Amino acid sequence: MEIGFMQGRLCDRIDGKIQAFPWRDWEAEFPSAQAHGLGLLEWTLDQERLHENPLMTAAGQARIRELSARHGVRVLSLTGDCFMQAPFYKVEGAAREALLADLWAILDASEQVGIRYVLIPLVDNGSLQTTEHERTLLEGVLPLRQRLVSAGMKIVFESDFGPARLAEFIDRLPRDAFGINYDIGNSAALGFSPAEEVGSYGHRIDNVHVKDRKLHGTTVPLGTGNADFPTVFGALRKASYAGHFILQTARADDNDHAGALARYRDMTRAWWKQSGS
């Protein structure tokens, strides 16, 4: 297994948010990650200042590749909060076309730095609330299949659908270009059964976010919420999951962000090891 972290988790919060692109500290996270034995980083991308993000510029892409090589920290996945903040399938006309153009541009930029998984969150403001939303989403992403396959990339969806509904949804999308991001904390907050979830669509899970949440509540430190980690990891192992685990965990109240991530990494390793015993 390989454990990585969500960009921004090794530096101070941005405007008090649990997650946002760390404009001031993004470069410093690479040596920090190396120093703490974390060799995998998941990029974050917001709608605000989207095209100014280093990922979206040639100079920024070169800098990302340089830092990644120098510090041994790979960037293999991206969480597109921008897609949740401005979902193309909830607008029409020129606005939709502009957001779809952004999606194509994000895929092009991601390929330049070696990102393999681009995550579209179908939760919160991005939730698919109508059949029209779902139809428009599929119409937008299905034409991307060949583009994704040729680059060895996938779009993965994080969703608030229940197990059977999510299995039905992902079955409508080709496996070679589309998959699922399984968010442990979000599923716990929704009260879903991890055994039922992984049993329903485990073969389509390509990326896992490790976090804990209270039932119908917010993110909390690992082991203090409603996530049943032993069951989750046991189900993932049974499904032969071989992808990455990204720490999208609660922020440290004492601002010892590196210490918190190290703790959470060790807890995740222990749960995975126990699932195989």
Task: Walk me through what this model shows.
It is a single chain. It is built from 11 helices and 10 strands. The chain is α/β, with parallel strands linked by helices and 277 residues long. The protein has one domain: TIM Barrel, CATH 3.20.20.150. The strands form 2 sheets. The chain has an 8-stranded parallel beta barrel with strand order 1-2-3-4-5-6-7-10, surrounded by 4 helices. It has a two-stranded antiparallel sheet with strand order 8-9. Strand 5, helix 7 and strand 6 form a beta-alpha-beta unit. Helix 7 packs parallel to helix 9, helix 9 runs parallel beside helix 10 and helix 10 packs across helix 11.
List keywords for this structure.
277 residues, alpha/beta, TIM Barrel, 8-stranded parallel β-barrel, two-stranded antiparallel sheet, 11 helices, 10 strands, 17% strand
